Amino acid sequence: MALAGFMIASGLAALAGALIAPVTIVSPVIGADYLIKGFIAVIVGGLGSVPGAILGGLFVAGIETFGSFYFDPSSATVAIFLLVIAVLLVRPKGLLGHG
Fold first, then answer.
1. 42-53 pLDDT, tens per residue?
2. If we measure between CA atoms, which residue out of 73, 80, 2 comes closest to residue 43?
3. pTM for this structure?
4. DSSP conformational letter for 95
């Protein structure tokens, strides 16, 4: 089961790399921004909660999209970090986190 999960994850990572390579500069740290935003989505949603991670991803995507459209993209990134701080202050386990 672990081998199958690892193979699926590796295949998806290879597909994502092949799709993102033509539109950006290829470097060893190409996925760092995406990794950080994914980690933030999981933290906002709550560790151990798949629906929470989906909800956190929707919040992060919404803030990034609307913030980048109406304001500067760097201010959208700041807003995402402010979201993490606010969620962790109000609900330390995340929005749908398990106790």
1. 999 988 888 999
2. 80
3. 0.76
4. S
